[in-house]
Description:
β1 (115-116) and β2 (119-123) form a beta hairpin. The chain has 5 helices and 3 strands; from the N terminus they run αααααβββ. The protein has helices at 11-35, 39-45, 60-70, 74-82, 92-110, and strands at 115-116, 119-123, 126-127. A 3-stranded antiparallel β-sheet has the order 1-2-3, covered by helices on one side. α4 packs antiparallel against α5 (92-110). It is mainly alpha-helical.
Amino acid sequence: MSDYPTTGATGGVRALLRLEGLMLFTAALLIYAHSGASWRLFFALILVPDLTFIAFIFGPRIGAIAYNAMHSTAGPIALALASPLLPESATPLVAIALIWFAHIGFDRALGYGLKYATGFSDTHLGAMGKSRKQFA
């Protein structure tokens, strides 16, 4: 089975997935605002998942693995679930999970999906940029 996507989400499905991303971003932002957590922390960490772009210098497969690890909701879900099991000093973990959710939601709302090993522009939400024309 090839790693190359022959298509991605299109039409109404793509729109629904992007709307879902916008809703995730909005919910995470509202819950964060209600939590009383530091906005300095929010702005300091909101772009941290994008540091995984660096992994693309090692090739598209490694880049996709790193990017997807930080742009899947599994990480912030695990962090949020682990938080109550840890000492009270670990309560910033929920805030970090909310920031992480907000980042993922914002990216998905903009059309940045999880990456295929074929390259940065090949995503589960469809091709991005110049590659998008291939699938139109």
